[in-house]
Amino acid sequence: MNTASASTVVAGIDQPLTLRLARSIARRCENAFSPETREKLRLCLLDFLGCAIEARALPWARQAAALAERGDGGCTIVGASRQTFASDAAFANAVAGHGLLREDTHAGSVSHLGVVVLPALLAVAQDRGLSGAAFTDAAIVGYEVGAKIGRALVTPDFSRAFRPAGFTGPIAAAAALSCLLRLDEAETASALALAANMACGLNQWPHTGADDMFFHAGQAASSGVRAVRLAVLGARASEGALDGEAGLLRVYRPDRAVPSVTLFDGAEPEIASVYFKAAPVCNFAQTPCQATIALASENHLDAARVRSIRIRVSDAARAYPGCDYTGPYDRILQAKLSIQFAVASALLRGRVDEAAYRKLDDPALVRLASLVEVEADPEFTSAFPKAQGAEIIVVLDDGRMFARRLQDLAPADRDLVRRRFAAAAGEFAGEARAQSLQDAVDGLDAIADIGRLMRLAADPGPLST
């Protein structure tokens, strides 16, 4: 990129945030990350690909793929047989990766960063023929920037109106792509500022379970691609787009203050705080599910005898749109957001999986969901986001009471992520091709061209038996 323009960036603590982040991004792109951090990124990529493959036939994934232009683009849409341009591939793959509501989660920013950063990077890296090692470095930077912006921006009041990932995502993707393409500091600052102007996402959809949510990730990923391309073409955005008088942070924070935002200032990078969901439900329903499953397995409760259910969670969980919802459940997202529905499924079936959402009007499940009351717990509220605790209290018709309290959620571990990927990819492409794709992810740093990995994620056509 044009290194001469970097000389216009002046160091100093009074610099606009876009310039300070750009300088930090440039430094981190030149330094290797630890093996543990790189392994975490590979697991994030495997989880994303597994989700996108499994969700490829869902309506929102098909709709996003159908928007992609046909032409000379050489970027893969996961699960599809044709290729498209980078911004279209980023959009389609982000929607598919978000399609199960089982994407990776960063609680501190209340954001799903992988379904934005990874599809944007995969598309551009494939388009440019870039390496797996460069992809990894850039992805870790993207997670870091998105997480830090989210920590500075997102509050419970913000989340009631706006979708956090729709705001953190474009900036995270722009940061990652700036690192991938080795933009100079001025170009990176403009890319970040342009991405801030493209932030969007309203949280009206949980009230009816509408499909808006799925497309927030797609819009964020494709916006990151466009922001970087504009910066490369010479577009120069306002340096104060993040922290100026009318910048993103000042406009959307109730106190109009700008918290300190410094990259890689902790013992571990932010990607270390990313967790993988055990169940395909909202982040805030994860621990209530797990507490319920533990209670049910320990006490062998008869669901038909349950008279009342209380769920105690953090105030952030109780207040997030759609999470405290007793029904009716007309659409799948109403059920996947609802703590009540997830708890009812866990109590009735001993688990929460995709099968729970195939019959939203199951009478026994709907009855249990109607009995659930959600309330904020001061201890869980003060512990969030470092921990996400939950407690369930069940009273039976004979007056007996049972309770189970968890101080934090249990994420899906490495083995579960890999098993879920193997099942989805094997069903999609056959065991041999699924293993080749998994091997490519495991050997990501050695791949000279990310396109080799992405071609393995394309529709293989008719499979031999």
How would you explain this protein's 3D organization?
This protein is α+β, with helices and mostly antiparallel strands. A hairpin with a 4-residue loop joins strand 5 and strand 6 (401-406). Helices cover 51% and strands 6% of the residues. The strands form two sheets. It has a four-stranded mixed β-sheet with strand order 4-3-5-6. It has two domains: 3-273, Orthogonal Bundle (2-methylcitrate dehydratase PrpD); 283-406, 2-methylcitrate dehydratase PrpD (60s Ribosomal Protein L30, Chain: A, 2-Layer Sandwich), CATH 3.30.1330.120. The longest helix has 22 residues, at 132-153.
In short, what is this structure?
With 465 residues, the chain is α+β, with helices and mostly antiparallel strands.
Spell out the key features of this protein:
465 residues; alpha+beta; 2-methylcitrate dehydratase PrpD; 60s Ribosomal Protein L30, Chain: A; four-stranded mixed β-sheet; 20 helices; 6 strands; globular
Shape: globular
Number of helices: 20
CATH architecture classification name of the largest domain: Orthogonal Bundle
Tally the structural domains.
Answer: 2
What structural class is derived from the secondary structure elements? alpha+beta
CATH superfamily of the largest domain: 2-methylcitrate dehydratase PrpD
Strand order of the largest sheet: 4-3-5-6
Low-confidence stretches: 1-12
Number of extended strands: 6
Q: How large is the radius of gyration?
A: 22 Å
- According to CATH, the fold-level topology of the largest domain is 2-methylcitrate dehydratase PrpD
CATH class of the largest domain: Mainly Alpha
Largest sheet: 4 strands, mixed
Cα distance spanning the termini: 49 Å
* SSE sequence, one letter per element: HHHEEHHHHHHHHHEHHHHEHEEHHH
Portion of residues in beta strands equals: 5-15%
Helix content: 40-55%
Mean pLDDT: 94
